[in-house]
Amino acid sequence: MFGPLASFVLQPGGSMGVVALLTRGATLIEAVGLQKPNDEGSRLPTQIEADLGGRRCIGWTWQNDPLFRLRYRY
Is residue 5 part of a domain? Predict the structure, then answer.
């Protein structure tokens, strides 16, 4: 998924957040938020992981236009 979507309007200097909720039984392999989609060195450091109702929850907050990538397995 590329975020934010083209239809989103961003305020300069504002912040956004994304939360991904995996299905029950999924195993998280990797969760990455990138400030620059083609630069692995631009990872977002504010990743939050928690369990919510037996499901894995991953979240980030950021400013600008990052790319989020989640890999999981059933």
Answer: no
